[in-house]
Specification:
- With about 240 residues, this protein is of the alpha+beta class.
- Helices cover about 25% and strands about 20% of the residues.
- It contains 4 helices and 6 strands; from the N terminus they run ββββαββααα.
- The strands form 2 sheets. Strands 1-5-6 form a 3-stranded antiparallel beta sheet. A 3-stranded antiparallel beta sheet has the order 2-3-4.
- α3 packs across α4 (about 165-175).
């Protein structure tokens, strides 16, 4: 007996599509074109399957998904030029979202407050750009490392093999972490000389410095830490 599957929901350009999530969950599918997320959706009472890419999946999570949640999705396209050719990429506008947002994406108000608390000062666009590029580079390297540690061979000639993993890492780290904490630590400024704070125009006599106190004996050496496990597959040992 042949198993039947619900029809696939195909979103049309600039056509709002309203559907209900009967279950509110999804299934990750790693296919020919990378990672996608399969949702069961009801359109006018008819069950469909919606394969959402990373951008649509994240937009739906941000809007709020849950059992019985109704969403309206509008697929649009933006044009750009590369190597003299006109190209397009998809964008998604998701409205509605009456369910409880999943833990993978905080509610819009909470997300806005989180971004405001962790972003660099307004106007420092160059610093923000540098933080994003540093994080994106790190996510690509981390995705490659994860696949390599698991025994897979990554094709260096094309990023398609790690696109989905790198994009997921980038989105979640930008939402959840203070990117400034991932940047290279800055050297602490040299302490000011409290005993030589006169300007060249001043001619105050120098007071001899008091003798320094005797050195404090060094503390006892702590016991050496336990050796790390040899198969620590979640260790982030990237050099940057």
């Amino acid at each position: 007996m042949t198993q039947s599957y619900p029809p696939k929901l195909v979103l049309q350009i600039n056509v709002p599509t309203t559907f209900t999530l009967p279950f509110g969950d999804y299934k990750e599918v790693n296919g020919q074109y990378g990672m996608s997320f399969l949702y069961a959706v009801d359109v006018a009472g008819v069950r469909h399957g919606l394969f959402a890419d990373v951008k649509l999946h994240q937009a739906m999570l941000n809007a709020g998904t849950g059992p019985g949640c109704e969403l309206t999705v509008t697929k649009t396209q933006e044009s750009y030029e590369k190597d003299g050719e006109q190209r397009r990429f998809n964008t998604f506008i998701v409205e509605g979202g009456t369910g409880t947002p999943t833990q993978a994406a905080p509610a819009p108000d909470a997300f806005a407050a989180q971004v405001a608390s962790t972003a660099p000062p307004a106007g420092d666009a160059k610093e923000t750009y540098k933080l994003l590029m540093h994080n994106f580079k790190r996510c690509i390297a981390q995705a490659e490392k994860i696949y390599t540690d698991c025994g897979y061979q990554v094709d260096k000639s094309s990023p398609d093999a790690i696109n989905a993993a790198a994009a997921t890492l980038f989105i979640q780290t930008c939402k959840s972490l203070d990117l400034r904490a991932l940047s290279q630590p800055q050297a602490a400024p040299a302490p000011a000389d409290a005993h030589n704070n006169t300007t060249p125009s001043q001619s105050l006599p120098l007071t001899p410095l008091p003798a320094p106190p005797p050195p404090t004996p060094p503390p006892a050496e702590p016991a050496p830490p336990a050796a790390a496990p040899t198969n620590n597959e979640y260790d982030d040992d990237l050099p940057f």
